[in-house]
Write a structure and sequence with these properties.
Elements (H helix, E strand, L loop, with lengths): L2 H8 L54 E3 L13 H12 L4 E4 L1 H7 L8 E4 L3 H7 L3 E4 L5 E5 L5 E6 L1 E2 L18 E2 L2 H6 L8 E4 L4 E4 L3 H7 L1 E2 L5 H7 L2 H13 L2 E2 L1 H10 L8 H13 L3 H11 L1 H5 L1 H7 L13 H14 L6 H20 L7 H19 L3 H14 L10 H7 L4 H15 L3 H24 L24
Parallel strand pairs: 3-6, 11-12
Antiparallel strand pairs: 1-10, 2-3, 2-9, 4-5, 5-6, 7-8, 9-10
Helix pairs in contact: 1-11, 7-9, 8-10, 8-11, 13-15, 14-15, 14-19, 15-16, 15-17, 15-19, 16-17, 17-19, 19-20
Amino acid sequence: MSKASMDSIGSDRIRPSGDGRRPPINERSPQIRNPQSEIRNPSDPGPQIRNPQSAIRNPSEPLPRVRPRSEHPISRTHIDPDALKTLYRLRSSGHKAYLVGGSVRDLLLGRVPKDFDIGTDAPPQAVRRLFRNCRLIGRRFRLAHILFPEGKVIEVATFRRRPEALDPNAPELLMTSDNVFGTAREDALRRDFTINGLFYDISDFSVLDYVGGLDDLEAGLIRTIGDPEIRFREDPVRMMRAVEFASRLGFAITPDAYEAILNHRKEIVKSAPPRVTEELAQSLKGGHALPTFLLLREVGLLDVLFPELADVLRELDPEHPHGTGHLFWALLDVLDAERRRGRAYEDAVLFGLFFLPVARARVRRIAPDGDPSPGALSVLLEDLVTPIAARMALPHAIAHRIKLALSLVGRLSHRPDARVATRRLVFREAFPAALDLFELRVMATGRGEDLAREWRALSERARSARGRSAAEEPAPSPPRNRPRRRGGRGRRRPVA
């Protein structure tokens, strides 16, 4: 894969909102009507919110754009049955209940949602009273988790609103809390992008749009709700989410949002490391890692998040199959193909791909022949993985497994033999992760396929042999019941 073809994937991510609109989701044009279902009944007590004034319907408050059931493709057969049960129970109890967020977006695009989240005007304690299988989580803002068999969780959140507007010229706009109850419209306006601000109303099966998300969904645009200069400073992780959505959906980032990312990319370091790592993991597991990381490099976020990797990627990689780019991009391309086929990888393999290019570059410096001593390699990996893993807030177990796997990958470049040391290698703790990394590198370079097959076959033989020996091993005999010792030591008589 040439560098030009690789880089072309990350380009063309920005276009004016008036250019090249996508075909509409439905052939009929959307209509706007006055949804009586959105007008609160004066006898309905409504949610118990922190600011009682926000519960009163403002007559001047704009009504949502409503797309009726006949003009959108969402069917209840595409919605999780347990999510439907939750929606119906909330609605039958006199509360508003909407399907919200990414699930509505994905259903409109014909995709299968990963989660089905629900928004409601019922306060958390009211939700808890309605569902015996409910658990409230969170300290500052309570979320309701409705628990179902096989570990399924339906998240129910009370409508929230953004905190009071801050001075856009203030030196610090980082938002640390938005735990203020609000209305459905306020909840839509607090969300990050217009395509994530759509609601599905279970009462009449319509789609409600307070933020213009239907137009942007049809145009294929990632647009922030509000000024992107402010929204990205409030929550810098939104910059990564914009890149991830654009890459996953094949959408374009609007010019103002793209420019804001370039201006504020360095503020990503203010975000909580676990949130940043979670966004990276979603890209690696979602089958769109290559376009995501190409776009992260394009907007400069990769240089801020992983300067060690960004420096290495500026060099030509001798192992690249065409010699015109870096092997890292070919690895991500192969990873995406394998994930789309349904192959799962553990976290040590996914995050190990970040460290592999840097480790290979440093190994070439200390050992041009590519075969450093075990002691030197151990020190190199410790100095490389430990600080970056701490910066990413990776669990210690995953960081340790990454170091072990990287130390074994080089040994798999040699053909397996019948020595005892080779058989012991297969039973190492991190050998499965090392073999996965080696196979990804083989697929990316097109070299060493025979070696990968032989190591995989040896691994399967060794593990099946261990399984047979464990099955044939006799069960341990129960401990013998020793007869109870009666009496005891007599008291020592005092010496006269």
